[in-house]
Amino acid sequence: MIVNQFLVVAAALFSLGVYGLLVRRNAVMVLLAVELMLNAVNLNLIAFESVLRTPEALGQIFAIFVITVAAAEVGIGLAIILLIFRNRRSANVDDFNLMKL
Amino acid sequence: MTFDVWLSDPVNWVYLAIGAAVLLCGVRVVTSQNVVHAALFLVGALAGSAALMLLLSAEFVAWTVVLVYIGAVIVLFLFGIMITRAPVVRDVGLDNKKARPVAAVVALATFAVLTYTSLLAFGNTEVARVGDPTPTETLAEGLLGRFVLPFEVVGFILLAALIGGITLARRDLSPAEEEERGAV
């Protein structure tokens, strides 16, 4: 196994996340695409760790930090979407223009 | 290394199967017109990447992904989908059709740049053999030793997210209701 085969899968997952982020209209679907991107980053960190073999497994520790922050991000993100949905009756990101005058 | 040599290693067959499944699920996550299906395909993509992490001898992280993402985050997503009453049936309005070509170009460019640079940088660098997993003890010593401060900070972030989530999502009482509560 060479490291590039894993990096290519991670790059493809990341690009799919970018595509979803730009195309989706529903805010929950946008968060789903962000999750895909974060997971691609985790895969990269693990692949690099598998090459470098640091004595403290630094790549894996960082991946765990990323997972934790991603969990917090989803919780807050869904709470915000819920709040906007209650006020606007819509989960469409095109309708989220509350900062406009 | 030629492709024949690469293919003669049975581990790479496993990799090909898992990688194809991950990419298929990933494509369906961003193209599916049914929101619940998209969330369930994300389960497939995440499970596949957890399997890839197992191949890369990161067992603890792989099972953490299964527990945290598949166990908790997906449930949260399904909650969000149900509560915001996103159209569960096939819906043409889920995608912004005008953005599709631009998004496809941007995504393909991202993929090309990332792949080109990693091919340039790493070439045929081998990864560690399967069956030599990182001991969880190493991770524990790292997390509670050198990285104990970031560990505490991340714990604090989780607490803040918990309190913030509850505060944001709870329904505000109307003044009349609040008075009623106060009277009781």
Structure report:
The complex is a heterodimer of chains A (101) and B (184). Chain A has a single domain (3-90), classed as Helix Hairpins. Chain A contains 3 helices and no strands. Chain A has helices at 3-23, 27-52, 58-88. In chain A, helix 1 (3-23) runs antiparallel to helix 2 (27-52) and helix 2 (27-52) packs antiparallel against helix 3. Chain B has helices spanning 3-7, 10-31, 35-55, 59-83, 100-122, 136-144, 148-169, 175-183. The longest helix of chain B has 25 residues, at 59-83. The radius of gyration of chain B is 23 Å and the shape is extended. With 184 residues, chain B is an all-alpha fold. Chains A and B meet through helix 1, helix 2 and helix 3 of A and helix 2, helix 3, helix 4, helix 5 and helix 6 of B.
Largest sheet, strands/sense/barrel of chain B? none
What is the assigned CATH homologous superfamily of the largest domain in chain B?
Answer: NADH-ubiquinone/plastoquinone oxidoreductase chain 6, subunit NuoJ
Give the H and E element order of chain A.
Answer: HHH
In terms of DSSP E residues, the strand content of chain B is under 5%
What is the strand tally of chain B? 0
N- to C-terminal separation of chain A? Answer: 56 Å
- Specify the structural class of chain A: mainly alpha
User: What is the total number of structural domains of chain A?
Assistant: 1
- As residue ranges, the low-confidence spans of chain A are none
- Tell me the Rg of chain A in angstroms: 17 Å
CATH class of chain A: Mainly Alpha
Structural class of chain B: mainly alpha
Number of helices of chain A: 3
